[in-house]
């Protein structure tokens, strides 16, 4: 079986086993490796749409290689429509999340090329995109580590993303529980807040 980072072709049954392991462990490097398998034309299983999905799962769990792949795919329109804002955002995210001094020639090249093409407003949107995704990664990574579940690489072993759809426009809201009508008071009962009727006074005897 190919080791992580190897570009040798995989058999379909090997890929299926890797996918199951990646989903079970939520290991970002393994998720990214599955994306590489789909991206590699020599695998015989090439599917850029699937590659993008697996890279996305790896990126939101903090894998810089997956972020770089997403930047390149959005830059060139591979697997998804071309999107310079996302391409710049993922490239900037790689810079933010990588170790200080780490060589990033491809990322720097993407940032420089896009910086010459994009408007100031688009660059600001890309920075905002990168910042929001970085906050999400750090928040979920901290939640996973506080739970004590991490793999050998130090990445959270079980990160479950549960989007809150309670305020998302267009999402159906849960129906309110039906109200049970209050039972009608028995005849002659005194209702709260309503003064009781005065009893008729007896006529004086003549």
**Form type:** globular
Terminal-residue CA separation? 117 Å
Helix content: 40-55%
Largest β sheet strand count, sense and barrel closure:
none
Our estimate of the beta-strand percent is: under 5%
Structure classification: mainly alpha
Unreliable stretches covering 5 or more consecutive residues: 1-7, 146-177
The CATH topology of the domain at 12-146 turns out to be: Serine Threonine Protein Phosphatase 5, Tetratricopeptide repeat
Give the integer mean of the pLDDT values.
74
CATH class of the domain at 12-146: Mainly Alpha
Protein topology:
Elements: H1 12-25, H2 28-39, H3 48-59, H4 64-76, H5 84-97, H6 105-117, H7 120-146
Helix pairs in contact: 1-2, 2-3, 3-4, 4-5, 4-6, 5-6, 5-7
Region (Disordered): 141-206
Biased composition (Pro residues): 180-198
Protein name: Sel1 repeat family protein
Structure description:
The protein is mainly alpha-helical and 206 residues long. It has a domain at 12-146: Serine Threonine Protein Phosphatase 5, Tetratricopeptide repeat (Alpha Horseshoe). 51% of the residues lie in helices and 0% in strands. It has 7 helices and no strands. The protein has helices at residues 12-25, 28-39, 48-59, 64-76, 84-97, 105-117, 120-146. The chain is globular and about 45 Å long. The relative contact order is 0.09.
């Amino acid at each position: 079986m190919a080791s992580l980072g190897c570009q040798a072709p995989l058999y379909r049954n090997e890929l299926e086993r890797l996918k199951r392991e990646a989903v079970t462990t939520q290991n970002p490097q393994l998720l990214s490796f599955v994306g590489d398998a789909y991206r590699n034309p020599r695998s015989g299983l090439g599917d850029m749409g699937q590659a993008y999905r697996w890279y996305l799962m790896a990126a939101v769990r903090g894998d810089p290689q997956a972020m770089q792949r997403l930047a390149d795919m959005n830059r060139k329109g591979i697997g998804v429509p071309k999107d310079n804002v996302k391409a710049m955002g993922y490239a900037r995210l790689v810079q933010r999340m990588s170790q200080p001094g780490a060589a990033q020639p491809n990322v720097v090249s993407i940032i420089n090329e896009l910086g010459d093409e994009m408007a100031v407003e688009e660059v600001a949107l890309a920075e905002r995109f990168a910042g929001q995704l970085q906050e999400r990664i750090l928040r979920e990574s901290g939640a996973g580590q506080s739970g004590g579940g991490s793999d050998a690489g130090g990445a959270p072993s079980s990160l479950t993303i549960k989007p809150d759809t309670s305020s998302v426009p267009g999402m159906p809201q849960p129906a309110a529980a039906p109200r049970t009508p209050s039972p009608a008071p028995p005849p002659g009962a005194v209702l709260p807040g309503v003064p009781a009727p005065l009893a008729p006074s007896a006529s004086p005897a003549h």
